[in-house]
Amino acid sequence: MRYANVDGVRAEAQPKVRGVCRSCGGEVISKCGAHVVWHWSHRSLTNCDHWWEAETEWHRRWKDRFHESWQEVILRDELSGEKHIADVRTGHGVVVEFQRSTIEPAEVAAREQFYQRMVWVIDGSKNEFDCVNFSNSRSGVNENAMARFRWSGRSKLFQRWHSTKPVFIDFGEDHGFWRICRFDPKSKEGVALLVDRDMFAAALIGAETDFSSGGGPASTF
Ligand SMILES: [Zn+2]
Description:
This is Competence protein CoiA-like N-terminal domain-containing protein. InterPro entries: CoiA-like_N. The chain has five helices and 13 strands. By secondary structure, it is an alpha+beta fold. It has two domains: about 1-50, no CATH class; about 50-220, no CATH class.
């Protein structure tokens, strides 16, 4: 995690400091090596948020597009007491999950159920073949910045993110940032919208949209 409480104050990790997890209250230790993104790590294996994944530069670059107070927001279900840490929750109540590691469809569904108003931003550049395969499998963009594609890659990237909430895949600087508007797992055909990263963040910050209109890739053609 990026933030923990140190002497009761929300703080980023600094070398050789201990803090308290803002979610579970457990002790956390700063990890500030030369080859890792500086972060806080639980001192002992805990029952803290099992949805949390180790952060990379990719996560931090995205989170930094949003105000600090919107990052790592702890949300609690009043009925069940279940607690999770949203990567970003805008002041307008939209959760943005930046996901790099693969998660099972059941967990995707559980997170969507928990967060309700949310969008996914997936790191599609984790696998360089996915970037190239996507560029090769799509048409050029039309006047509305839309492209059709037929997924020919071996990975299950699109099958895995066959979600009901809006899904954006970041294929890196060379291959673009795309909203996956539709995807049919049987035919492997889909429709994607080329999106400007700055405009995406600005739209969420300004509450111009929560991107719920049109739904996710699983919405019907
Ligand atoms: Zn914790």
